[in-house]
Amino acid sequence: MASRTQNPGIQTPENDQENQQNPVTTLATTPWRRIERLSLHLNPFSSNHYDLSHQQMKMLICAARAKKIEVKVVELSSFMRGKHRDIQEQVFDYFKSRPELQTPLEISKDEHRELCMRQLVGLVREANIRPFKYVVEDPAKYFAIAEAVGSVDMSLAIKLGVQYSLWGGSVLNLGTKKHRDKYFDGIDNMEYPGCFAMTELHHGSNVQGLQTVATFDPLTDEFIINTPNDGAIKWWIGNAAVHGKFASVFARLMLPTHDTKGVSDMGVHAFIVPIRDLRTHKLLPGVEIHDCGHKVGLNGVDNGALRFRSVRIPRDNLLNRFGDVSRDGKYTSSLPSISKRFGATLGELVGGRVVLAYSSNGVLKIAATIAIRYSLLRQQFGPPKQPEITILDYQSHQHKLMPMLASTYAFHFATLHLVDKYCEMKKTGDEESVGDVHALSAGLKAYVTSYTAKSLNICREACGGHGYAAVNRFGSLRNDHDIFQTFEGDNTVLLQQVAIDLLKQYKEKFRGGSLAVTWNYLKESMNTYLSQPNPVTSRWEGEDHLRDPKFQLDAFRYRTSRLLQSVAARLQKHSKTLGGFGAWNRCLNHLLTLAESHIESVILERFIEAVRSCPDEGSRSALKLVCDLYALDRIWNDIGTYRNVDYVAPNKAKAIHKLTEYVCFQVRNIARELVDAFDLPDYVIRAPIGLQTPGEAYSQYTQHVGF
Amino acid sequence: MASRTQNPGIQTPENDQENQQNPVTTLATTPWRRIERLSLHLNPFSSNHYDLSHQQMKMLICAARAKKIEVKVVELSSFMRGKHRDIQEQVFDYFKSRPELQTPLEISKDEHRELCMRQLVGLVREANIRPFKYVVEDPAKYFAIAEAVGSVDMSLAIKLGVQYSLWGGSVLNLGTKKHRDKYFDGIDNMEYPGCFAMTELHHGSNVQGLQTVATFDPLTDEFIINTPNDGAIKWWIGNAAVHGKFASVFARLMLPTHDTKGVSDMGVHAFIVPIRDLRTHKLLPGVEIHDCGHKVGLNGVDNGALRFRSVRIPRDNLLNRFGDVSRDGKYTSSLPSISKRFGATLGELVGGRVVLAYSSNGVLKIAATIAIRYSLLRQQFGPPKQPEITILDYQSHQHKLMPMLASTYAFHFATLHLVDKYCEMKKTGDEESVGDVHALSAGLKAYVTSYTAKSLNICREACGGHGYAAVNRFGSLRNDHDIFQTFEGDNTVLLQQVAIDLLKQYKEKFRGGSLAVTWNYLKESMNTYLSQPNPVTSRWEGEDHLRDPKFQLDAFRYRTSRLLQSVAARLQKHSKTLGGFGAWNRCLNHLLTLAESHIESVILERFIEAVRSCPDEGSRSALKLVCDLYALDRIWNDIGTYRNVDYVAPNKAKAIHKLTEYVCFQVRNIARELVDAFDLPDYVIRAPIGLQTPGEAYSQYTQHVGF
User: Fold this and answer.
1) Are residues A236 and A297 in the same domain?
2) Less Cβ around it within 10 Å: N or C end of chain B?
3) CB–CB contact B579 A56 (8 Å)
4) A706/B469 touch (CB, cutoff 8 Å), yes or no
5) Residues B221, B236: Cα–Cα separation, whole Å
6) Which domain holds residue B171?
7) Do B240 and B160 share a structural domain?
8) Model pLDDT for residues A136-152, shown as the tens digit of each residue
9) Is A9 in contact with B307 (Cβ distance < 8 A)?
10) Do B31 and A470 touch (CB under 8 A)?
């Protein structure tokens, strides 16, 4: 059942009081009248009605609206807006001016792929928006472009990512000057569409298990690329089925030796492999490519499966930043071990996770906007003989959508923070910031994409039948976004990387070392944790206290610290009997929860900071309210944990629940302004039921159908 | 966060013991080695490895397998199989013999609609499977057909449902002999494809708000059907856009009066309206139909939007079972009020919910089978320098899929029970059984379809990239099934009907009346509830106790009873200040939780009964294990509630958690047999990664792509 499940237990104090009376005698007629009333939704025109008049109803509904915060959308929006809004508007304007480039609702896979290619080439050559330039100079601007094109068609965003972040990024970050000089322009201007050939049929998450080999042939000064078995076929490779001219292929580098084995495995390296003739576009000898076929979504991207049969490439095609092979077959590297080199190689790919976390929240913004606007428009049922009420006035509907809206805001600030961190890292390159960005991007990518995937289902369901019309977009948003949970690192694997990092930091602490910036809080809260929860504050239930960022952040951090400490102890205990692998697996659920808890702590911290730094008073009040909902809803969802360790007493748990529902209701009262502040023009939203001008929605919709 | 979130708190007792030692001194090297080990997944070929040997590993993994229950798939399968397997096999055989009728992965909307029509006509005329016969004679057989065709293409199942259950059902159940005589054969043999025109653009859930009117014209002895405004356009009407010849149109019956108003509104009635010429298939005068267009799924069904402009139909076309109009415009009915007639009319449509609950679990079976078989095949990571392990051996993966498998079994028995109840009701027609089936079908439809919708996402995600290939089906299953949550009654609305019913029953009890069969348990447990939880049993933590069906069922029923009692008290309290409507809305989350809790109680009860009645010992043991997982997982998910009222003490909560994880692991060990027992032939499963013969999956997949 949903999180509302925990409701009953916590209702106890309120109910217990009521229960002391005999339920038989206290069963006054009112609730039974209500039941009869509701039955009458099936029985119209009954002459009995016990309900309040419509006027009274309106007053009640409006009661808390008297407290409504005045939100100036323009102010809030300008605070939210990133610094790269300009280039996003260029993207929007370009596609607005080229209606023939817009993706229709129904399009075959092959047509979609061609359209997607035309969109990308148009963007680069006609609109002269050059993403590759920004990959190098200003990654934040590149991410802004990726988000904007994603709202045009998510396939386009992924194709752009394959070209510039994956294929282009591998050349830039894993290669050296000679590679940049040779490939930069062709990648930039789309003359050299390329692929990123890492994943194989049998190995996705476990990159070290890749089996494609690149054997150096000293006689010809070439590498020979081979697919040794079916499991090693490169699979899901974007741009491969139709458009790619090149691929950066990840393969085990094999060097000839003079011992009996004959070759030495130097680990996974990346190689530039031409796959199609630049002029004729025919497949090159030894390269076999098949179409991976229809996918759940993103059918504008041409994923292919590649098999290599003794494909020869010049030695220069090894992307040699972290390791090189000399003419005579000697290996050289600035890094001491295979594992360091492998880590450095994969470390360069972290940008993909940053852009996914960021873009995933872009998708969530669009979906939440459509669902909330429609829920404000749609009316269904109401007090008998009175006008129907808007469905967002139902508690259950607020429960579905308002914590989601709060999360969207929370993720907005957290992912912007990640982008900043990433840009800083690219500038300074210092090791601590590399580790920090690695774990933060893994955690946010996993957490945000899982949340968005769940939310897209909720949005569709919350919009009922009209949410099922393709034109209202939940289907394509969901299908396209779905794989965000898997590519650039499976979410379950990424969360384990966060857990590993936390455990490392924990170990450091007890060895007296310093913690990375994002983990600094652990040092303090760890000490707090080792003492018992404060029996006085665990009873505090005042609204001021519950809305105090210190209480909220302490609660989040306390949970993370406790999880960290307890899982470390469990790992230690189980290692003795199960060994390291068995112990890790035995604690896996616990470890994943730890990682999520940490990420939630970081998100809340960024949100609180954003509230603090907001210059406009009205906007700040609104953001504070939304931040409270984010924090309280998360605490309430996990109330079992807090109760079990007596971090909150029963009365406090009840107060948290009541306040969460109340804040949910207050956020509902500014919900329209909050989604308007995302500043997504109707051209981007597109769904007839989610447009900015209320009232026009239904007529847009009937027109769409042909009335 | 997921339900595993609650883990940490409950881990406390175990951890507290460990915590009494100084964490700095007790941080032995083992867990840290594990962390280093896991980091090495990014750093292969390190020479350090602390892990157990592969042999030790295997022994550990196999340890609990020693206890593995011997499941004979044939025995279990024959117990599970319904009595109408024969006709399902006829369906499968027919479509297997007609490959040109199979729906390809990529197909345009218009082609899909035509194909779907050919599939249906072929089934009826060629295979001579006549669903309409069974709608009348043996609904259980009809449901079995619907489930089987759903596994061919869900669009076909829905088109079949529109024709026979909705259009045909309305003629049979709301009409009288004259209608049956005139329409039965044409509906049966598909000469009269028809629509069920209830939903309007502005009104879906609120059927009483429908605005289409049917005004009697005594001069011509006709009704005049009119769409008074855009909001009253009939929307989402299946079979309307292309194939329908007739529609049963729900409209307010207006009779002329001699007062100043001129007409009297007799409430919503159903009318047979011809919409297309039987010979030319042209739209009839006054009927305007537009295509509702592309949908998220089910694009083989031609949903349309209909507007009526003074469409005249003979008086005989009123479906007059519950109310009739005489030649001189007088209204007669065997039922005393508009509300009774409306209730009786809608009550006849309950079969649609039965079939959706049943078919939804059919979808879940297919998805769970594919996901579990693939998770047994797929290997990723493992102890260093050892073969990789199957991903279903990871605790996190078991956590995703095993409770889902248990739920699939649970729903199987619950929905079969519902089918039996429904058939019984259709035979006897007694009022108590009508009410029982009404609430049970509403609750199971809502609960099962919501659960399946969530599970489809989990299945796709659990299968990673290969789950994203369209050929592996999660995309189409999810897109087609999604609307199950909305049509035939929005789930949130249906759960409220269950809550209403429970509150009515509760009221009855205190007035001394008898409870409907399904609710009988409330009588007993209500009394138990009014006393405090037993402080002795709340501490019992032995495995025998936790696996005792009595403990499990008591816990479920206690929760329902408590929720019922507490929400009744809250409704009463809030009614005083908020009125009935406001109080209901104020308690809405609580009411929905109550309804879900009740449905879970009913499901568990049916499962326990099925275990008891299973004749084969091995199958019974397996079912008992699965039933334990279903029960314990649900209790653990809601542990906050139980803890808060001290129904379980901390030690017991911890024991429940440990046992749940252990049972989850045990179920994993018979997971293959459990999905095999669903008895879904590879022809039905179709997904290359989910076929019955292990090992063939990857080669099926590479062949599919063209290698």
Assistant:
1) yes
2) C
3) yes
4) no
5) 30
6) 78-187
7) no
8) 999 999 999 999 999 99
9) no
10) no
Chain A residues closer than 8 Å to B579 by CB: 50-52, 56-57, 60, 383
Check the annotation: does A238 bind a ligand: yes
Higher pLDDT, A371 or B532: A371
Nearest to B386 by CA among B6, B27, B56: B56
Percent of chain A at pLDDT > 90 equals 75
CB A171 within 8 A of CB A187: yes
Q: Which two tokens stand for residue A309?
A: 């049969």
pLDDT of A338-358, one tens digit each? 888 888 888 888 999 999 999
Determine, yes or no, domain membership for B61: no
Same domain (yes/no): B381, B459:
yes
Is position A72 within any domain? no
Does residue A191 surpass a pLDDT of 60? yes
pLDDT in tens, A489-540: 999 999 999 999 999 988 877 665 555 666 667 766 666 665 677 888 888 9
CATH of the domain at A263: 2.40.110.10
Kindly state whether residues A174 and A216 are assigned to the same domain: no
Pairing status of strand A194-197 against strand A246-256: parallel
CA distance A615 to chain B (A): 32
Q: Is A199 annotated as a binding residue?
A: yes
- What percent of chain A is predicted at pLDDT more than 70? 87
> Do B358 and B328 fall within a single domain?
no
Which of A388, A469, A596 is opposite residue B206, by nearest beta carbon? Answer: A388
pLDDT the model gives residue B449: 98
Report the alpha-carbon distance of residue B386 to residue B50 in Å, rounded.
13
Selected for mutation to probe chain B from A566, A577, A600, A638 (highest B CB count within 10 Å) is: A566
Task: Answer yes or no: do B136 and B234 share one domain.
Answer: no
Query: Do B308 and B249 form a contact (C-beta atoms < 8 A)?
Result: yes
The whole-number pLDDT of residue B64 equals 41
CB-neighbour burial class of residue B83 (10 A; exposed 0-12, middle 13-18, buried 19+): exposed
Cα separation, A232 vs A234, in Å, equals 6
Q: What is the mean pLDDT of residues B519-525?
A: 68
- Work out the minimum CA distance from B510 to partner chain A, whole angstroms: 6
Considering A187, A207, A228, which residue would you say is the last residue of a domain? Answer: A187
Task: Tell me B514's DSSP state.
Answer: P
Q: Is the pLDDT confidence value at B695 over 90?
A: no
> How many cross-chain Cβ pairs, A to B, lie less than 8 Å apart?
528
Directed axis angle between helix A139-152 and helix A395-428, to 10°? 140
Give the one of B8, B45, B290 whose C-beta lies nearest to A590's C-beta: B8
Least Cα separation, residue B652 to chain A (angstroms): 12
Confidence band, pLDDT 50/70/90 cuts, at residue B349: confident
Degrees to nearest 5, angle at CA B61 with B56 and B67: 120
* Domain assignment present for B527: yes
Which CATH number is A449's domain given? 1.20.140.10
Pairing of strands A213-217, A246-256: parallel
Take residue B124 and report the two structure tokens written for it: 């009826």
Tell me the whole-structure pTM to 2 decimals. 0.92
Residues A246 and A129 in one domain: no
First-to-final CA distance of chain B: 41
B493 and B623 in a common domain = yes
Domain boundary among A319, A341, A363: A341
Cα angle for residues A431, A432, A438 (degrees, 5° grid): 90
Q: Please list every residue in chain B whose beta carbon sits closer than 8 Å to the beta carbon of residue A14.
A: 570
B364 Cβ contact partners less than 8 Å away, ≥ 6 residues apart: B404, B407, B408, B411, B448, B451, B452, B455, B456
CB within 8 Å: B52 and A581: yes
Q: Answer whether B507 sits within 8 Å of A32, measured CB to CB.
A: yes
Q: For residues A451 and B454, is the Cβ–Cβ distance under 8 A?
A: no
Which has more confidence, B525 or B232?
B232
Q: What pLDDT is attached to residue A32? A: 52
